[in-house]
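Before surveying the methods themselves, let us examine one representative protein, pairing a chain with its fold in C-alpha cell form.
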Amino acid sequence: MKKLIKGGEVVFADGTEVCDILVDGSKIEKIGKNLDGKGCEVIDASGKTVFPGIIDMHVHLREPGFEGKEDIESGSRAAVAGGVTQVCCMPNTNPVCDNAVVVRYILSRAKEVGLCKVRPIGAITKGEQGETLSDIGKMAKEGAVALSDDGRSVMNSLIMRRGMEYASGFNLKCLCHCEDASLVDGGVVNEGKNSTLTGLKGSPRAAEDIMIARDISLAESLDVPVHICHVSTYSGVDIIRSAKKRGVKVTAETCPHYFILTDDVIDDFDTFTKVNPPLREEKDRKAIIEGLRDGTLDCIVTDHAPHGRKDKEVEYNLAAFGISGIETSFALSYTYLVKSGILSLSQLSVLMAKHPAEILNLEGGEIREGGVADLSVIDLNAKYVIDGQKFLSKGKNTPFNGFEVYGKVLLTLVDGDVKYRA
C-alpha cells in the first residue's frame, strides 16, 4: 500500500516547505500540496517536520566479537529511534573486518535484522596492525563502502600511501583516525589546565594535528580524496580549511560532543566523558562550530561507541574510550546548532544526510521525487531530558545525562517501511 505523509514541514537541502510526500514502495513518487490520499496509508505529519533519513557514517556496532557491548540488532534499533536510516560501521571488531567474509557476515546479519541499512567499512590494514594492506578489492566487491583503521592511525606513511592509492582504485575513500600514538603516550584527556588539575595524563592537540596534516599531504600528492574522522582541535580545523582552499580533495567530520562539551566536564572523573580524541577546550569547541558553519567540516557523525558497565565503572585511566550517541545526535545537533541560530534546519540536513551520502556514494541523503523513501517525522517542539538508561542501545554511556533537548523522533521510514514508531 502506498503511504501519504501529509502536511509536514519537509526539509530540503535548500529550504523547507509544508507539503505532502507520496511514497510508493521504497521510493518517493511525488511531493506536492494537497496530494490525494485515496487508497493510501495516511501518516499525519501536520505540525511536525519531515527530515531526510540521517546517515551516520561513523559508528561501532561491535558485532562480530563484542556483542556484549552492542550488536547489529541493538545498534540498528537505536539508530532508527534516532532517525538514522543508514549506518556505516567501523571495522575494529573481532575478527577485524579486513576481508570479504566479515563484510559478507555483517551484511547478512543486517538483512536478517531488517531495520536500518548497515554499510560495512573495511580495515585499511590486516588486523588494523598498520603493517600489511587488507584484501581491499575483495572487500569492495563484497560491499564495503570505505576503508579505515579507526581506533588507531596507520603510522607507517608508506603503508598509508599505498592504502589511499588502492582505495581510490576501487572508488573508496580512506576514513582517517588521526592520532600519533607516540605523542599520545598513554594520555586519556586533553593536555592542558584540566589534565594538570585532575592529575590525568594529557594528550596534546599536536598528536591529532600532525596526522591530519600527513594524511592531507598524502592525498594532495596523490591527487586522491581523503576523509578526516572526528575532528576535535581548532588547529585541525585550520589545517583542513587551508587544504580545501588549495583544492585538496579532503572532507571531514565531527561529533556533537566536540561542539557542545569541553574538558571542563572531566573534573568529576565521570568516565562517560572519556572519549578519543578527547574533549578539548573552549577555543576548540568554538572552532568546530565555525568549521561546521563555514563548510570546513562536512558532516556530523556520532562515533557511536557503546560500552558495558564493566568497561566504564572503573577508574578513569582504566576506562574504555567512547560515547553512545546514535539516539541523541539529532536532538543535540538541533538544540545546539539550529535552535541556537547557528545553522538552519536545511544546513543541518546537509551535514547529517546529504554530505555523508555524497562522500561515500550512498543512496539517499535528501528528499526528492524518485529518491529513496528514507525519512523521519520529528516533533521539533517536543522537549525531553536525556536519560542514557532508556537508550535502546546496549551502551548507556553518555555524558549528556540530564541535558534538556528539543526534537523527538516520532517515526522513521527505511525504504518506505516504518521501522520505528514512538
